[in-house]
Specification:
alpha/beta; Rossmann fold; 2 domains; 17% strand; globular
């Protein structure tokens, strides 16, 4: 089972937040932010799994929380975990939130967007506590905000890796297509493939559940049978990568560095450094700088990147990735026209760019080099 990864690197990165100058204390209505010392701060964390979960998304958050704790010199007792909270049991989520409040937590992180309705309710009932909900745009202007990342930027870089390493010009992609944000990752990956390899095609096989490893394995095996020699994904298990390894192919993981799952097959994975956000938020609480702003991170601020390059990558992969990253750092949006979908329609005209809203919510198309396979693999009963 994959444990907390790359902690030392994360801690060193987080150290950059040290030494901030004091600012005037912000005020919410008539209530100022509480002045909480490092020794007094207590943090609540809600997740749908635990440290033994094979869900890479959950592991990425737990990695970030632990990196924050160590970086800020907090004790283990200062972080209270509420784990295994199903996204469809909001009463259980409410009980966990109330327990954190009763136990003295002053800032609570909820890592699932489905928790948002009850998090908003409990936040309204407890104005002295700060609540932060991942992948949510909720913000009550007082003590509730959302935080997310432009994960599609990492997917674009991952596509560059896949395009550079395919030998058959056939790249497979195991996709969860349950939301528009997932669509942006699929299309960004395909655009990254095309940037480095205009001749390559991307074949997409969709699954209904990001955590159903068996369905993902079946999807990957179908793509491999078509001749795809590199497999990408936006799902939360290592099953697609493991299927690629078993077939002598290669792949790009997702959210976490999945090298340990398939050492001879893994190329690079787009990863999120949630620890930067968690450290930022907790420091703002302790230093009386909390502004209750929704947060969106990306490549430009280090919140989204690629895992370390593996020896499996062809020579020149890093240079290709750096060139693509430099374009993002220079301000070029990935979804800048002209963009043509796989039906030949112009979805973004030349000289224009898709807005954040278009990218996160409005995509109902696939990029021009994408072929979507009919049917969805089902897990055997």
């Amino acid at each position: 089972m994959r444990k907390i990864l790359c902690l030392i690197t994360a801690i060193l990165t987080l150290a950059a937040f040290a030494g901030c100058k004091k600012e005037e204390k912000p005020v919410f209505g008539n209530k100022p932010v509480l002045d909480i010392s490092q020794e007094e701060i207590k943090i609540g964390v809600l997740t749908s799994g635990d440290s033994e979960s094979e869900n890479a998304y959950i592991q990425s958050h737990l990695t970030g929380i632990e990196a924050m704790r160590v970086s800020l010199g907090l004790s283990e007792e200062q972080v209270e975990y509420k784990t295994d909270l199903p996204v469809d049991d909001l009463e259980l989520v409410r009980a966990a939130l109330e327990s954190c409040v009763d136990d003295g937590c002053k800032i609570i992180f909820a890592t699932e967007k489905e928790y948002a309705p009850v998090v908003a309710e409990v936040a309204g009932e407890n104005p002295e506590v700060m609540f932060c909900n991942a992948l949510s745009e909720e913000n009550n202007g007082k003590n509730l905000s959302g935080y997310t990342v432009r994960m599609y930027q990492g997917q674009y870089l991952s596509g560059v890796v896949a395009g550079y390493n395919t030998k058959n010009n056939l790249v497979g992609y195991v996709a969860y297509e349950g939301e528009a944000a997932a669509m942006s990752g699929i299309n960004a990956f395909a655009m990254g493939v095309e940037k480095i390899n205009p001749e390559a095609r991307v074949y997409v096989s969709a699954v209904a559940d990001r955590c159903d490893g068996e369905a993902q394995r079946l999807a990957a095996e179908g793509l491999l049978a078509l001749g795809c020699d590199v497999i990408g994904q936006n799902t939360f298990t290592a099953a697609p990568l493991e299927a690629a390894a078993a077939a002598g192919a290669e792949g790009c993981g997702y959210i976490n560095d999945m090298t340990s799952d398939a050492p001879k097959a893994h190329l690079q994975a787009p990863v999120v450094n949630w620890g930067l956000y968690y450290t930022k938020a907790v420091k703002e609480m302790m230093e009386e700088k909390w502004k209750n702003e929704n947060f969106v991170g990306g490549v430009s601020d280090g919140f989204v990147t690629l895992s370390p390059v593996n020896s499996n990558c062809s020579r020149g992969t890093t240079a290709a990735v750096n060139e693509a990253r430099d374009e993002i750092l220079a301000g070029r949006g990935i979804f800048t026209g002209p963009i043509i979908d796989n039906e030949g329609q112009v979805v973004c005209a030349e000289g224009t760019a898709l807005s954040d809203g278009d990218v996160s919510k409005g995509m109902d198309w696939h990029y021009r080099n994408v072929t979507v396979l009919d049917g969805r693999p089902e897990t055997p009963q």
